[in-house]
Structure formats: structure tokens, C-alpha cells
Amino acid sequence: MQIRTQRLNLRPLDHSDAAAMSLLAGDFDVACMTGTIPHPYSETAARAWVDRVGQGEEGVVFAVTRDGRLIGCSGYMPMDADHAELGYWIGKPYWGAGYATEAVRAVIAHAFDTHGFTYIRAGHFVDNSGSQRVLGKLGFTSEGEETRDCVARGEQVACLTYRLERARAATALQHP
């Protein structure tokens, strides 16, 4: 399955992505904003994660590419028939260009269309203002705050949580 947006191609992950993934996602500034990416992040660990994705253990994950180059990943984990949890990261050299918003918009539309979820949840650590902007642009509304593990930081971190209802997504996702 591939999804094309105005500037991006979202496609299945491949072992050939592991080297770029370990460099981009392994950058501490990226890894410390995710719950599960370690720092440092070896190519071997990235390849093992790609294997788990291929076996369906990590939910639905897309490689986000621009001009044939991996710039990040985005996907979701179905939690039950009603909802999924969204996840994404974009490599630091690509921050500030709207790629996260563009990729996540496409992934959310795919999740709602493919699975018929009622809503999608997402969260970001309190010090991740970039993700706060992305989720706001896509129509997510605040749910609250909780504590989540951050492997790269080696500690638990306050996380703001959000929810996007299917009905609200229909309107919010139309406006790029």
C-alpha cells in the first residue's frame, strides 16, 4: 500500500531504510521526543524494528519519503475496533517544512477509511511544541496529561494527550 501526497510518498518500510532510520531517528533531538526509539539507535536495531513492523507487531507503519529519500515514519496502532494510537517522527533536517502535518494527515485519513475507527488518539511530550502544532492543525482536541516512558531519555515524561473524532476529522483533514 502506498499513499501519495502533494510532496511525499508513504510506503511500506524496507530493510534498505534501516541505515537512514538509525541516523535520523537516532538523533537525540528526534529520539527524545518519542516513547520507544532508543539513543543511540543502531542500524541493527532499526532493521529488527522493520522486521517487527513487517510481521504486524507494531501496527500500521509507513516510511515517509521525499524524492525517494526516507525522511521519517508515521503510523498507528489499532487499540480496539473503535480507536487507534497515532505515532510519527520526522528527521531533524526536515523539520519546519510541514512534512509531519502532510504525512500525518494522510495516515489519519487512511486509518479512518480503512478501519472505520470512531476516533484516533495521539500524544506528545510537554516539551514538544512541534508536535503540538501538528496535532492542532489536524483538529485534535486536548484530552489531558499523563506520564509516559521515554526510552531515549531513560525516564518518564509528562505527555499531553489528544483525540480526533471521525466526524471532526472529515472537516479538519480537508484543509492542507
UniProtKB/TrEMBL annotation:
Pfam family for this entry, one: Acetyltransf_3
Coiled-coil regions, chain positions: none
UniProt GO MF annotations: acyltransferase activity, transferring groups other than amino-acyl groups
GO cellular component: ribosome
Entry keywords, A to Z: Acyltransferase, Ribonucleoprotein, Ribosomal protein, Transferase
Domain N-acetyltransferase: 8-169
Superkingdom of this protein's organism: Bacteria
Cross-referenced InterPro entries: Acyl_CoA_acyltransferase, GNAT_dom, N-acetyltransferase
Family, similarity comment: Belongs to the acetyltransferase family. RimJ subfamily.
PANTHER family tied to this protein: [RIBOSOMAL PROTEIN US5]-ALANINE N-ACETYLTRANSFERASE (PTHR43792:SF8), GNAT FAMILY, PUTATIVE (AFU_ORTHOLOGUE AFUA_3G00765)-RELATED-RELATED (PTHR43792)
Protein name: 50S ribosomal protein acetyltransferase
